[in-house]
Amino acid sequence: MAVAADTSVTDSPPGRPPRRSSARSRETRAALLFISPWLIGFAVFTAYPVIYTGYLSLTDYDVINDPSFVGMENFRALLEDPKVALALQNTFIFAVLSVPTQLIVSFFLAVLLNRAGRASGFFRTAFFLPKMTPPVAIGILLLLLFNGQNGLINEALGWFGIDGPDWTTDPVWVKPGLVMMSLWTIGASVVILLAALRNVPQELYDAARVDGAGWWRQTTHVTIPMISGALFFILIVDTIAAFQSFTEAYTAFFGSGNTTYSNDAALFYAIYLFQQAFEFLHMGYASAMAWILFAIVLVVTLIQVRVTKRFVYYEGEQR
Amino acid sequence: MTTRTAVNRSKIAAGIACLGMALAGCAQGTDDEAADSSFDPNARLDGQLTVTGFGATDEIGRVRVEEAKKALGNVSVQLVEGELDIQQFLSSIAAGDPPEIVYADRNQIGTFASRGAILPLSDCIEGEEIDTGLFRESALDQVTFDEEIYGIPEFNVVQITQANANLLEEAGLSVEDVNGSDWQAVAAANQELARTEGGDLTVIGYDSKLPEFLPLWAKANGADMLSADGRTAQLDDPALIEALEFAVGIYDDQGGFSKVKAFRDSTDFFGEGNQFATGTLGAMPMEQWYVNVLNDVSPDAPMAFDTFRTPEGEPLAFASGSAWAIPKGSKNPEAACRFAKTMTMTESWVKAAEARVRDRGNDGGLFTGVLTGNTEADEQIRGMIDPTTEEKWNAGIEATYEANDHTFSFPANPAGEEFEAAWQDGVNRVLNGQQDPEEAMQQAQQEAQEALDQAWAEWDK
Question: At the top level of its lineage, which domain of life is listed (chain A) (predicted)?
Fold first, then answer.
C-alpha cells in the first residue's frame, strides 16, 4: 500500500498535489450532478428529437403509421417544390431587411438610454415591456396597426400627406410591414447594448474629446469598437431568429385571424415547414426541410463569424 | 380492392359473431378494434369514455351529453373540451393511448380514415341500429370514405343571403337583387350600394366572401370543384374560373379586395357595431349562425334575408359540420358507438332544443332553430319555432331551413387539407393581384391533383 501511495505521489504532475486533483475531481462530479437535470433534458428533449428528425428526413412518415424509408427522395422533392424556393426567398428578404434594421434601431435606442440619466431605469423598462407581449398578440396587433384604411401607421402617414399602402394585402408591402413590426420586440437587444455601453471606459471618451473628436467620431471610433462583441452577438441571434421567423406572420396571414385569407409574400420557410408537418402530416418532408434550414443557418452564421472576425474586439483578447 | 373487400367481409362476419355473443349475454367488449367489439343497443356497458374535442358549453351540448350518459349506464364519461388538436390526436394513436371517441370537423374525416386513424363504423351502425337514412345526404357524403362510413355526422352549417333592408330600400333595391339569382343584378346592386369618401370605402356594397365561399359561387355556376369519388380536382373548370372572375369583380368594382378587406377588418363583426347595424354593408352570403349573433347584439338592425340562389333561382348552400369518430385503438368502442348514437338521435336533439326554447324564453331571446344534420330532428325542431316571430327574423329562419334542404358538400378524400389549401391559395393569389383567375386556378389544379394522386396512391397500395 505504501508503495502504491508513493507511486501515485510520484506520478502527479509537478506542482499539483494529489489533494487538489482529488478536490477538482469531486468538484467536477458535483458540477455534473448539478447540471445533470439540464443535460438529461437536453438529451431527451433536444438532442434525441434532432437526431431522430435526421432519420425521419429519409422516410415517408404521417405520425400514425410507421416511417417507411425513401432515401433522399424528400430532399429531391424539396428541390422541385416551387413553394420551398418561394419560402426561402421570402425568408432571406425578411432577414436582410429586418436584421440590420433591428441592429441599428437597437443601437440608437441604447445610446439614447445611456444618456437618459436618472430616467434611464424607467425608459429601460418601457422599451423592454413590449418584448413581453405574446407573439400571437403581436400578429393580431400588426393587422390593427397596419390596416390599410384605419390603421395607426397609415393615419400617421396621412398627417404628412402620405397615402399609406395596403400593408396587409399588397405583396410588395407585406414584408416591410412585418419588418417594422419586428421592432416591437427589440427591447432585449436594447438592454444588452445598454449594458455593453455602460462598460465602455469613460477615459476613452475623455481622451477622444481631448483629441478633438466629436460625437460621431467618438461613436464610430470608441463606442462601436468597444461594444462590437455585443453587436456581433445580436447580429448572430437576430439572424437565426429571422430565419426561424414564424408566429407573428403565421398569426397575421395564415392563422386564426384569417381563417381562409393568406398571402404568399408572408410564407416564411418555418411556416411552410409547419404546414407540411402539422397540417398536411408530411413529417418526413418537413424533417428534411428542417435539416436544410439548419444547414443554411449554419452556413450563414459561419460566414458572419468569418466576415466580422476582424471587426469584433473583445477586451483582454490576445491577438 | 379485393383484399379490402375480403377484410370488410371478415369484419362483418366477426361483427355478426360478436353480436351473437352479445345477445347471449356477454355484450361487454374489451378489445380495441371495432371488428372485435360487440355492438348491441341493449348491452350494459361500463368502463371509461374520454371524449375529445367536444365541450358541452351550451344547452344543446349539455342536454345531449346527459342523455348519452343515461344511455351509457355505468360508463364514466370525461369530456376534454376545446377543438380537436390533430397533432395531439394522431400522436396519441401512435402511442397506443387514444381517447375513446373524438369530435372532428367533417372535412377531416377522409384524412383520418385514409391514414387508419379512425375505425370504419359499419359494425357500430349495424349493431347499435343507427338509422343512417335520417342523416342529411351532404353530411353523410363528408364522412363516407371509399364507400365506408367513418363518422356519425351532426350539425349543419349553411349559407344564406343577409342584407341591410334600409340600404336596399334607399337604393330602390330588394333582397332578390342580391340573392345571387341574377349575377348582373348583384353587380349592379353592388355599385349602387357601395359608398366611398376621400378614396376610402365607407359602405361595402356587396361582399362576395372570398376566398371561403368560392365553392358556393362555383357550384351556383355549375362547377364541382372535386369529382364525386374524391379523386379528381376540377379547379380549372371554365365555369369555376368564370365564377371566380365574377366574385373578384365585385371587389374590383369597389376599389379592389384590399380596400374591402381593410374596411371589413376594422369593423366590430360580433358586436353592436357590426356592419349591418352601422349601415356599412349592403349584403353578403353568410353562415346561418350569424342570424343569432345579429339578433343578440343588434335586434333592431334593419335586416333582410333570403337563401343564396343559383342563376336558375334555386336555393343553394355549401354544407359543413362536425362528426363523431372512433379512433383506432379506442379502448371502449362499444361505449363510443352508443355515445355517438345517442348524441345524434332525434329524441336527444329534440330535448336539447326544448331546453334552448326554455332558456331563450327566460332571457327574452329568439329561438331560431337548430340545424342538426338529422332530417327528422330538423323537422321536429322547426315545428318548435314561434310562428309569431318578428317578420325579418322569421325570414332568416325560413331561409336557413330552405338552404338546409338544398346543400352540397365535398366528398371525403385523403388530402382534404392540401386540396383546400390549393384552391384557397389560388383565390388569394388573385385577390392579392399576383395572378389572374385562370393562371391561379391552373396552378391550384396542379397542386391539388398532385396532392390527391399522392394520397390516393398511399391508400390504394
Answer: Bacteria
- A259: nearest CA in chain B? B212
Higher pLDDT, B262 or A255: B262
How is residue A311 written as a grid cell?
A: 471587426
CB contact under 8 A, A263 and B432: yes
- Residue A7 domain flag: no
Inter-chain Cβ pairs, chain A and chain B, closer than 8 A: 86
pLDDT at position A8 over 60: no
ipTM of the complex: 0.83
User: Do the chains contact at A64 and B115, CB–CB below 8 Å?
Assistant: yes
pLDDT at residue A307, rounded to an integer: 86
Write out the H or E segment, with its range, that includes residue A91: helix A82-114
- Measured distance CA(B445)–CA(A268) in Å, rounded: 23
A319 within a domain of the structure (yes/no): no
Range of the domain at A145: 82-311
Q: How many domains are there within chain A? A: 2
Q: Which residue of A has its CA nearest to B92?
A: A64
User: Chain B neighbours among A 1-30 (CB < 8 Å)?
Assistant: none
Other beta carbons within 10 Å of B367? 20
- Which pLDDT value is given to residue B7? 39
**Which of B208, B261, B443 is the best mutation test for A, with the most CBs of A within 10 A?**
B261
Across the interface, which of A149, A260, A264 has its CB nearest the CB of B211? Answer: A260
Quick check: A86 contacting B, CB < 8 Å? no
pLDDT, tens digit, 9 for 90 and up, residues A277-316: 988 999 999 999 999 999 999 999 999 988 888 788 877 6
CA distance B395 to B403: 12
